[in-house]
Amino acid sequence: MLKARMTLAATALVLLVLGSVAFWGSTLRDLLNLAIVLVTPPLFFWFIVRPTKAAKASQRKAVE
């Protein structure tokens, strides 16, 4: 879990640094593009890594 969080944080940081150019000549369209660039990769990462409902249920049964 820690590795996933570190990867997510590193991805956001790299994209923030690369996307910060948009603030220098920031129009509304630039800011929208920056928001899309920053939000999309972590969102896809979360969809891939998140546990399914079946996995969550099996974890609950294992704890009990």
Q: Which H/E pattern describes the elements?
A: HHH
| Distance between the first and last residues' Cα | 22 Å
Which secondary-structure class do the elements indicate? Answer: mainly alpha
Low-confidence stretches: none
* Overall pLDDT confidence: 76
Number of helices: 3
> Share of helix among residues?
over 70%
Overall 3D geometry? elongated
Structural summary, described in words:
The protein is an all-alpha fold and 64 residues long. It is 80% helix and 0% strand. It is built from three helices and no strands. α1 packs antiparallel against α2.
Task: Give the gist of this structure.
The chain is mostly helical and 64 residues long.
Keywords:
64 residues, mainly alpha
List the helices and strands and how they pair.
Elements: H1 2-19, H2 28-49, H3 53-63
